[in-house]
Amino acid sequence: FRIAAARRILYREGLDSQIGGHVSLRAGTEDAFYVTPHQYFDESMPEHVMKLGFDLQVREAGSLPPAAGANFHASIYRARPDVNCVIHTHGFYQSVLSTTGRPFEVFYDYAALFLGDVAYWKDDLDLTPDAEGDLMAETLGDRRVMLMGHHGALHVGDTLENAVVEALVFELCCRYQVAAMQVGGTPLDDRSAQAYRNAYLKYGFRQMMWDANYRRIRKSDPDLWVTLAE
User: Measured on CA atoms in the order 17, 70, 178, 185, is the torsion positive or negative?
Assistant: First the structure.
């Protein structure tokens, strides 16, 4: 249910990825994770979520076939015991920014959340899925975001809620950056950005954002809440 709700929140905030993109959640202490299939984010239901092992074998089937491309989720969970959620989207503005060769910068104060936390990746068609996943995990390192050239972005978090909020805020900040670059804007200095970052993390910005978006989809997506009574 939480994964389906997360996908619908991402959709409402402009992060639908057609039938691509994934939201996954570590399955406790198992070498496994819950993940979504190929589908539009706003059609996600609890019955669609499946459990895959780190070997990508289906442990619990959903009502739709497993999605291709879940390999890097397994690699990241293996490499990062601190990560409990992995999100990959093809957001419009992050995808546009990823074509410019310019790094993500703090043009808008919310972007301070990602100060020093963004890695960069370019797809390599010559890599096998296993090698790709392991290299993506290595490239991500201990950071929380990876901007993927001509593709989108990947987010990791200690909780699903934090990862969802960071994914939608990152897309918003990419939108500001693309617009600011068009008018010759300049990024915020690192000292000011660090002060903003500290404040947002200290005062529970991410939880408040999750709670607000959760309240909104209770009203906008009644079909999802019906499943709780079934």
Answer: positive
